[in-house]
Amino acid sequence: MRKQIAAANWKMNLSYAEGEKLIDELLAAGISLADHQQVVLAVPFPYLTMARDRVAGQKNYSVAAQNCSQHESGAYTGDTSAAMLASIRVPYCVIGHSERREYFHESNEELARKTDRSFAHSITPIFCCGEPLEIREAGTQNDYVAQQLSESLFHLSAEQLTQLVIAYEPIWAIGTGKTASTEQAQEMHAHLRAVLAKQYGAAIADQVPILYGGSVKAGNAAELFASPDVDGGLVGGASLVAADFAAIIRALK
What we know:
With 253 residues, this protein is of the alpha/beta class. It has a single domain, classed as TIM Barrel (Alpha-Beta Barrel), CATH 3.20.20.70. Helices cover 43% and strands 15% of the residues. The protein has twelve helices and eight strands. The protein has an eight-stranded parallel beta sheet. α2 links the parallel β2 and β3. The radius of gyration is 17 Å and the shape is globular. The protein starts with a strand and ends with a helix.
């Protein structure tokens, strides 16, 4: 079975003390993860070492940065390089989150470089893709996400691709009042896997976990995760409540 992942994206939330309390409450839930299940906490940069140390020794718990620089090093005030993340033993990095694309205008080409920087330092990218409302309404979402994958990932080797995690974010269903159905989620996940299979072959595509990032909650996680091509979730608001995120973890296949 593919790796099944519950990834928490705290975004720019919580104080240091609140973050400590949240992790402690989550671990106190006593969830036992199977070998193929993984919990990843994508926390703000100042909290990475705290979170890393708090989950140390917990089976299949790890941390992620929410971003990294496309540059190896240099005069880029405010940026954090993949080399820096590796130096503090951060194993995952979220690349191309919809908020980074929208607010910071990160291009597919720039995200390709960030992906390369992550792999160069043995960091697993959690690569985000997804379409905004106008693309969904135009019915061109399949071509849109296929272009995101091709321009950012198709230079990778097959071996690298199998080490990647993809997260699909239906941007049109986040904070808009519109809701993506389980059927729509599965349809897009299957399409993403087909795009990968066309480039790399079905055997390689079948190894890539694809997470759903469209407002996953405790109440809908089990239904979403039961879909054959949905391998967990990239969870925003619900990951800030220990009981809710614990329920989401328990919903993993």
